[in-house]
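pinging the channel bc i need a second pair of eyes. not urgent but kinda urgent?? the chain im working w is below, pasted from the shared doc
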Amino acid sequence: MKKKKLFLIIYISFVIITIIALIILSILGSKSRIGYLSNFKLNIERTLDLNNLSNIVNNELDEESLNNYLLTNENITNYVYNFRIRYYDKIFRNSYIYGVYPNLFNLPDYMKNAEMEFDGSPYGNFISDKRLDGIEEENIDNINYILKIKFSIIISCIVLIISILLFLLIINYNIEKLINIIFPILISLSIFIATYLCILSSKNMAGHIYTITILLLTLLLINKFADKIYSLLFNSKNEKFILIFMAIFIGALYIFIINSSYPFVGHDFSLIIPRAYSMLLYAQNNGIFNIEFASPLFGAGTLSYPNPQYDQFSIFYFLRYLMPFWNAYLLSIFIFVIIGFISFYYIAKDILKCSFEISLTAAILFSCTGYYIHHIMVGHWAFLYHPFTAVIILASFSDRLNPFIRIIISALLFSIMIFGGAMQTIFFLTCFSLLGIACILFKPNKKFILQSVSIIISAMLGIIMAISKFIPSLILGSKIDRGPWGLYTNDPKLLIENISNIIWYPILDLVIGNINLINSFGFEWLIWEADISLPLIIFIIIIFFAFKYSKKDFINFVDRNKFNIILTIILIYLYCDIFFADGLIRSSFKKLRGVNIHLRMASVWISPIIFIFILLLKNIKNKYAFIYKKIILISIFITIILFSFKFILIRNYNTSYKNLNISFDKNVYKEIKNNHNKFKVNSINDKNEFNNMQDYLNGTYKLNSSRFPYEPIYGYFLETFKAKELGCPFKIVYNKFNFTDPRSLIFFNENYPQFSGFDTNDFENLNKFLSFQKVDWGTDKYFNIANYISVILHIIVLSILIIYAIYCFIKKFKLKNIR
């Protein structure tokens, strides 16, 4: 009784303090302050749309050429410029709490129809009927503005207040009665709102409201028929069948979602498809195991194999040799998702000794990850290998296999990641995930030490196996200045933003259903970087246990797990450290300052949080059996429903996932297969590499090299890249051919100055390069040695695994006959 009163007093005090704080912040923000407008820049896309020219030059020219086109075309009568408001006040400005509302009525005459991008945004635009030369360097002073509390803050406070209230009700009252009263009301309200939005033509929002309605109905059905559904789904006689069926179902669900808008696909496929077909063309001419050191299709000659983002000799690369790009992409996803699903099932079953239903729940939570599907839908091929994290965790901590075999399996998977272009992403993040799992599983005994040592050995062996790719990538990365992109500040805002968005983004994306609205609420993080898709029920259960534990239980828990807690604190520190340029990690490895690893750090929590959740489920099964079945069913059904509806609906309001037409894919594949020895780069043009894909189908076999490719190793806007002139590669410019010698991109010295063209005496090599023929680049001996090491180690490792698989099969067969 005393606890209830204490909770009630704390709750009421919290509500009052929150309301007072919001009122004070609102009053302080409403005072008029003075700022200025700056960061003026011509908005090319909107200017083209405004002058009805978007269809004429759409994707045909790079940014510099489009700028020149707009500045010289007499038919342009209106120009759209972007701007940003800046502040003199160091405290009261646009922030997580406040949105800014400037007064745009007293602007110069040349600024017409000035408006902000959305309510509270610091960014805006205006229309001008004349070109404004030099405005990029100007500021417009004396701009009055007020501040309003962001809607996201108000929503967060309301959700927090309601959540605490519901939590108190759940603890102190009969859950079933609450569900039977509240859910029918919520379902009726959801249907009414969705229907009303449909009448108003807000179909995107209505779709999300209907999703919520289905979720509520599911919860109601689970509450009523939990025992029947549970016994049907988790029949002990059909465990293997259910496991295989669910793995194939989740794999098929991925394919259905990703392929649902074909031939329209995500925007970054424009970057990877041209590179994929460059590698295919080279492989057809020289053999699938010959290294494409550089490609003539991009930037008048850029590096391929040394670039860590290229995926030559990956699984996906070999599949592309056998079938068109899109078919190979879907098949890779299908296979990898199934592998990840089954692996995580056995992680829970073997490592954590969980029951069938908990293990299946863990596999579903791992596989239905927004972080993964966002990346592969938009076209980030390096993220294909994310499910292999589960295989590495299983191999590292399970007793199922021989320790030596576990090491070489993990090493092979690390090598696959590096060759798959995932050196900076999945490889690094997988190692961080392993640290998280190690913190949870830590025990001060010999077995754990051996497991930890085996992980280090497997990672090092994986690097040695991929040394053919690793060394040139490391050399290139160490020599190239990427410009200002990366992390060079110590702003805690990045860390706070990351943590808050991990919690709120999946919820807001479901409820609001529009990425632009989410941004207007103050969430500006890329959604696929923060969306780990874990249902809120995980955090609710953690809080539930925190309240249910007595002081004695808590002390015992800390005493039992003190080493795990200390290691977890160290892991959290390292995680936070990544977000600071002068932190321990980036100070130790200064080149990491040029890499945006912090953007993708959210993914390292996927596996550890699922581990914590399933350990809690085991505890619930023992202590709270009456709600155990419902939590299992809710976790499975809600995860699949949220995952399915969210990514089926996402293309309705976010064109990033369907703004490219790749209907040419099969025809280009066929042309390369049939006529690979006829294709040759004939010219350098201003088109982007994706639009140059049509060259494969024009019947002339003459290809163009894009002058300004997407090569983020030189900065996202090619800040440190030096382009060649338009036109013929054999044109003489500064006593060199007008085509970059790849040796000048990685071995640059006095003989090969960086970005220098082919020497005029090197006509034969240039001609071979343009024809996708093998060229002897005269690489150092250690490159060739590294290639031999990689080949020999892969042959040895694969041979050992094949022999071991045959041995296990024979052993199992003999045991079967004996029985």
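so The first strand starts at residue 33 and ends at 42. and The first helix runs from residue 2 to 29. — does that match what u expected or am i reading it wrong
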